[in-house]
Design a protein that fits this description.
2% strand; 210 residues; Tetracycline Repressor, domain 2; globular; mainly alpha; 9 helices
Length: 210
Amino acid sequence: MTPGESTQAGLILKVATHLFAALGYDGTSTRQIAEAAGLNIATVNYHVGGKRELYLAVMERAHQAEKAALETALARLPGAADPVAAIHGLTDDYLDFCVDNPEVPALWMHRWLSDASDITELERQYVQPLLATVTGALRPAVEAGLISDEVDLEYTVWTVIWSVHGFAKGGVLDAEGRRRGSGDRAALRRFRAHLHASLHRTLGLPGDPR
């Protein structure tokens, strides 16, 4: 791939990510992507293939970014001097990733609503391994008695995902009915504190949840 080709392919992927996150796979056409990138459909097809191939490339990039962020966060858990703080730190890192990369939760939330329903392998290929990695990293805390053995770790992790994705994508309504999203520092701080408290109680962690 020449430098010019690499630049065009990167532009196409960036534009496609934005459109798939905003409109979903089913609501986005290759023509829309080409027009937004300032290219023709033939050029898009040449660099990245058809719409399906482009979507798979977008989801692969989103997954790799999420995986890298989680691996960095999970690396702090083993042997942490303060394991409770490390568990909260894992949640913080995931929240920060989704706030900084809102297209990633948006892409997955479209799939929750049956977007791209003919592309069925992504959850098995991407979501299940990451979920297993996170629950596996938390299991030693159960064995050590830090986390209650009555906790359903898988559903707890899913609850964090649902909450974080919902906040990163939709925010919350204030008293006047205005939507306050992750760009509102006060709303983000309040959500983070609530997430800490909820997770702390769910896991049965000792000490102050904040």
